Amino acid sequence: MKFPYFKKQLSLIPYGEKLSIGATPDFALEITDQSGLVYDILCNCNGINTIGDIYNKLKYKYNDLDIEEVIDITDRLSSYPLILEDYALTVESSLTPREIERHSRTMNFLSNFDYLGTEKVNYMKKIISSNVLIIGLGGVGSSLAMNLAALGVQKLYGVDFDKVDLSNLNRQLLYSESDVGCLKSEAAKKKLDMFDSSIQFTTFQLEITCMEDVETLIKEYNIDFVFCAADQPSIWIYKWINEACLNTQTAWIYGGNSEASSYFQTIIPKETSCFNCRELNLKEFSTEGYLKYTEVKNHGYATQNNCLAATSSCITSFMIFDFIRYITKFETPRVINQLFTLDYRDYTISYLPVKKNQMCNCR
Ligand SMILES: [Zn+2]
């Protein structure tokens, strides 16, 4: 390890003759550190000091200290997951100084999933360079746009045809009172431009009415990932996006709020089941369920919105984590081949299986 770096997000607590590293109960490492040497070494693992520098700083405090002992301790600590990383590797990147500062805390978070710290910069670069389309800039869409912008996605695209209404302000965090009556596509752009001037947020005042509308956007803007945060027209919006994403092999997530719960599913074409599989499974296994579904598909039956900024933010968090998993590839998205639901009445999380249907063209 050339420039050992102690992951600053971990707590470091010397107590009695022990040293506790990390606060999470199932992770915290408790080691005996009678002299305090391990603590002092970790305090000096700042990504700038070499092992030799650390030895030179501590040799007067610990009279019989040998450089081999410092090497041994740093080696042993780096064999534990997620404590030390080699800063020499993480700084060898094409991130600009602004990006490193702007996203340092995000990279701290990402390093929780990266044992030696060699990947967090690559994860960050993948997030920064992804092209993400959000369909619907209402409650969930607002929360997605703000979260993705804060996360570091630099090329965001948003679609909405509606205007801001006073009743939207209970949940649509992109908008303010001064935006009432304005187009959401314009007000959303104004907000994100103020939030981070480096983001290219392209918005479209557009009502999605067919699969081709979505496919055109994906192709024209090289979209890597689609979030569907629109729920109208009921079912059809998901069907159109499903088909467009299948045609272009684009991963996507649909999600939203329904009565006292929120839901979402992550779909990766060719790999996972899709929204059409869900429809075909219903047709195959539930006569009544399919009858009701067909009724909604044919006639809509839209209800008045009943969600909060909090419920939209809550489901958005899970959707964003599945997006991070997919884009960085550090792990497979969690909510594939199933529908995730979160019930606010008792905080129950459920997973409804959505198997691949043999008749579906997503295979
Ligand atoms: Zn399918």
State the CATH superfamily name of the largest domain. Answer: NAD(P)-binding Rossmann-like Domain
The best one-word shape is elongated
CATH architecture of the largest domain: 3-Layer(aba) Sandwich
Count the DSSP helices.
Answer: 14
Trace the largest sheet across and list its strands: 8-7-6-9-10-11-12-13
For the secondary structure, the number of strands is 13
Q: What is the subunit arrangement here?
A: single chain
Task: Specify the biggest β-sheet.
Answer: 8 strands, mixed
Radius of gyration: 25 Å
Bound molecules: zinc ion
The portion of residues assigned to helices is 40-55%
Secondary-structure element pattern, one letter each: EEEEHHHEHHHHEHEHEHEHEEHHHEE
GO molecular function, one term: ubiquitin-like modifier activating enzyme activity
Pfam family, one: ThiF
Domain THIF-type NAD/FAD binding fold: 117-361
Organism: Streptococcus himalayensis
Describe the structure.
By secondary structure, this protein is an alpha/beta fold. The protein folds into 2 domains: 4-96, Outer Surface Protein A, domain 3 (Alpha-Beta Complex), CATH 3.90.930; 129-353, NAD(P)-binding Rossmann-like Domain (Rossmann fold, 3-Layer(aba) Sandwich). 40% of the residues lie in helices and 18% in strands. It is built from 14 helices and 13 strands. β6, α8 (139-151) and β7 (155-160) form a beta-alpha-beta unit. α12 packs across α13 (287-299). The two termini are 46 Å apart. The structure holds zinc ion. Zinc ion (ZN) is lined by residues 273-274, 276-277, 357, 360, 362.
